[in-house]
Structures are given as structure tokens and as C-alpha cells.
Amino acid sequence: MAHRVDHEYDYLFKIVLIGDSGVGKSNILSRFTRNEFCLDSKSTIGVEFATKTIQIEGKTIKAQIWDTAGQERYRAITSAYYRGAVGALLVYDITKQKTFDNVQRWLRELRDHADSNIVIMMAGNKSDLSHLRAVSEDDGQVFAEKEGLSFLETSALESLNVEKAFQTILMEIYHIINKKALAAKEAARTAGPIAQGTNINVSDPAGGSKTACCSR
Fold it and tell me: Count of domains in the chain?
């Protein structure tokens, strides 16, 4: 979902939060969008989302951030959850090795259901609990580099790197969208006007094609 409008914001980007239940996705969401942290937050049931508007290079970007339950019983909503997403924050808990081990499965699911150009960042959350660390920062960095992901360790409790994580994702999406728009303009410019008598194939919704003739 990379919609452009003309009034309250210039772009609307859908970002999804993924990862095991209990890794802190909901608190990352509330910290970024409302600057709040809830010590006794309950597991998300189904799907919820929040929004935040930021400025990037003079443009107003509205981030629509979706949070889903990490439990297996909610996997049926997968396709709808990923549809239209242009960015993802893949979260694990640095104090729980299993949540890091499951990152590969989440990444595979994301790549199976989301757009191939989706911007992905991996976040090792709960860095404030370094005395309970089970996953080293180096392990996270190595995995991220191998998979071509951006990487940060975050703490929703201490508000560490949460803003930076979303800013990085949104900036990269904006640059991709901007680059595509410039490329499209350049292609249109170099193509020049369509000559009279040129046949153009236009696909119809049923999958067939029609021929339109540009001559007057």
C-alpha cells in the first residue's frame, strides 16, 4: 500500500510487524505511534493497527502499522495481513533463542505472501535485558546480512532505536517509490509522442486484448 493523495499526507505506507508472540511487537507499535509502553500488555488477538505521520524530505508520510498475533491459530489471516504491505519489521526477543530461531520461518512466510520489493528490517527487541541475553548482537547482524535485511537492536521499554527502525524503513520505501516515479517520467519523456496510426494493445480485465488505433 503506497498510496499518494493531495491533502493530509503525500504518501500512505502500510508496514507490518511480524515475529513470535511475546517478543514485544505491540509495545514497539505503541512506543512509536503514541510514545507509550505497557508493562502488563496482553497478547494481541487477531489484528490491530495504528498510524503515525512523519516528514521525509519535505513530504508528509503516513505510516499505517499493522500488528498481528504471533500465535499459530491466527495464521489464517496471513494473506489479508500482508496484502498491500510495502515494509516489514521482523522482531525477535534477544532473551529467547527460540524467537530468533523462528525468524527464518517468519521471513519465508513474508516472502511467500508479500510483494517481492517489500522493505524488511529485523529487530532484536528487549535490549534493555542484556543481562538475560540469549542471542548475541553479532548473530543477529550476521543473519541479517546473509538475508539482505537491515538490522537494529531495540528496546520498546527504553525507547531505544524504535523511532530509528521505522524511520529507516519508511525512508527506504520513499526512496524506492521516488526512484520508480522518476524512472517512469524519464521513460515517458524518452518515448515521445505516439505517432498517428500506431496500434496499441490494451489488456482487458478478462485477460484478452483489444487493439486501439491512435489516428484521427
Answer: 1
Q: Other C-beta atoms within 10 Å of 158: how many?
A: 13
Angle at 76 between CA 72 and CA 78, to 5 degrees: 90
Q: pLDDT over 70 for what percent of the chain?
A: 77
Q: Which CATH number characterizes residue 58's domain? A: 3.40.50.300
> What burial class does residue 187 get, using C-beta atoms within 10 Å of its C-beta: 0-12 exposed, 13-18 middle, 19+ buried?
exposed
What the block records as the C-alpha cell of 208 is 484478452
8 A C-beta contact, residue 62 and residue 11:
yes
Q: Is residue 73 part of a domain?
A: yes
Q: Is residue 98 part of a domain?
A: yes
- pLDDT tens-digit series, residues 62-120: 999 999 865 555 556 677 889 999 999 999 999 999 999 999 999 999 999 999 999 99
> Angle formed by the axes of helices 162-191 and 25-34, to 10°?
80
Distances (CA, A) of 47 to 17, 67, 72, 112, 154: 10, 6, 13, 19, 22
Domain that holds residue 155: 11-173
pLDDT tens-place string over residues 143-178: 999 999 999 999 999 999 999 999 999 999 999 999
74, part of any domain: yes
Distance of alpha carbon 90 from alpha carbon 163, whole angstroms: 15
